Amino acid sequence: MSLIEVRKSAETRMGKSIESLKSGLAKIRTGRAHAGLLDHVLVEYYGSPVPVSQVANINLIDARTISVQVWEKSMAGPVEKAIRDSDLGLNPIAMGENIRVPMPALTEERRRDLTKVVRTEGEDAKIAIRNLRRDANDALKKMVKEKEISEDDERRMQDDIQKLTDRHVAEVDKLVSQKEAEIMTV
């Protein structure tokens, strides 16, 4: 493995950590409806759990209401139950093949709880990025030990990887603060 490969691998994997954080933050509701909110809700479909989006159309009626239109009439009950039983705190209303999911207003206490969840997600992402930095530095040390690179090259590359880490950690902080502001906005 070369110096360039070590850096590129670290950068790619840190980017994936950021993408994972973004998808995790997207699942945390802010009081406004969005179709992606139901992405991780699973419903039993012929014996196997599948996402709601694979058995129904999910649309927005307005800023606070999601419409779920099931493709098979027999799936309306299981989809409604899956949404109700999810950890999102939603109370769907069934109307034949259509299910309306109104977004309840968030209380101040619930907003604070959600910001704690956001901070935890952010901290997990930072830990993942720091672990990737450690892995890259370990690979560099191994290359020095095997006399593939000089100690000067190792030091330069460690500085480069540290800058890369700092940049990704700063991006995590930015994403977390944006999401907190979004949640706390009434």
Structural class based on helices, strands and sheet pairing: alpha+beta
Q: Percent of residues in beta strands?
A: 15-25%
Shape: elongated
What sequence of helices (H) and strands (E) makes up the elements?
HEEEEHEEHH
Uncertain regions spanning at least 5 consecutive residues: none
The whole-number mean of residue pLDDT values reads: 87
Rg (C-alpha, Å) = 22 Å
Number of distinct beta strands: 6
CATH fourth-tier homologous superfamily of the largest domain: Ribosome-recycling factor
Q: From the 3D coordinates, which CATH architecture of the largest domain would you assign?
A: Orthogonal Bundle
Helix fraction by DSSP (H/I, runs of at least 4)? 55-70%
Q: Counting H and I runs of at least 4 residues, what is the number of helices?
A: 4
- Taking the alpha carbons of the first and last residues, their distance comes to 51 Å
Largest sheet: 4 strands, antiparallel
- Under CATH at level 1, the class of the largest domain stands as Mainly Alpha
- Could you say what the CATH topology of the largest domain is called? Topoisomerase I, Chain A, domain 4
How many domains, in number, for the residues?
2
Strand arrangement, largest sheet? 3-4-6-5
